[in-house]
Amino acid sequence: TLRALASFRDSAFTARVAPLANDPDVGVAVQAETPLGALGGADGLNINVGTIAVTTTTGGYPITVTDSGLNGSTTYSNVTTGSPGDITITQELGDLLVGTISTSDNVTLTALAGSINDDVNDNVVDITGNAVSLTAEAAGQGIGTANGSLDISATTLTYSMDTGGVNLSNTGLLTLNTTTFAADTPVNFSSTAGIIVAGNQTH
Asked: What is the pLDDT of residue 29?
């Protein structure tokens, strides 16, 4: 498996890394000192890879990534902002597999055709953020699996999925905002310091 490493300060990313970021057999590691969402066009970093790690080293910079998933699921092994900065990830096809996604700001993960799952079945926190939003849009897709929870550490959570079920474990006190899921969907949800239900639970 070829792996590419890029460190950049400006839009030179497009010329240097974009040719490498369209191959499901490539693992791309990117370290940025500019807002990643501003690179590669208005939609952020657009890729088709098997594994990606993205970090920003300067405070306040967001990360925005879209993976086409044309050749399967993508593992986000380490997506981290060095200081405050929102993280937004969209997986168009395949599953969105989470290694570590971490920021002191907000995290928004969307799987348009697959599920959002832990990349390995363990008890390590996968997602750390202030307000976390998780969406698995397609029929039969869910968040976490029956055999393995998606582990988060969030202040507030909003989630939406169809019939695939949800298995989530939170560290700390959590405020649960609006949730949407199909009737009879299996829900397994826990939080170590309790849950405050603040929004509508629609199913």
From this structure: 59
Lowest pLDDT segment from 52-56, 135-139, 152-156? 52-56
**Is 18:30 a contact under the CB 8 Å cutoff?**
no
Three-state secondary-structure class, residue 166: strand
Of 168, 195, 163, 169, residue with least CA distance to 181: 163
Q: What is the pTM of this model?
A: 0.84
**Distance of alpha carbon 75 from alpha carbon 148, whole angstroms:** 16
pLDDT digits (tens, 9 = 90+) for 125-151: 999 999 999 999 999 999 999 999 999
Q: Are 137 and 158 in contact (CB under 8 A)?
A: no
Which stretches within the chain are classed as H helix?
12-16
Output DSSP code: residue 165: -
Q: List, in sequence order, every residue forming a beta bridge with 168; answer none if it has no partner.
A: 150, 189
Among 158, 126, 171, 164, CA closest to 143: 164
> Cα–Cα distance between 51 and 173 in angstroms, integer?
31
Task: State the Cα–Cα distance between residues 136 and 120, nearest whole angstrom.
Answer: 19
Residues 77 and 97: their CA atoms lie apart, in Å, by: 8
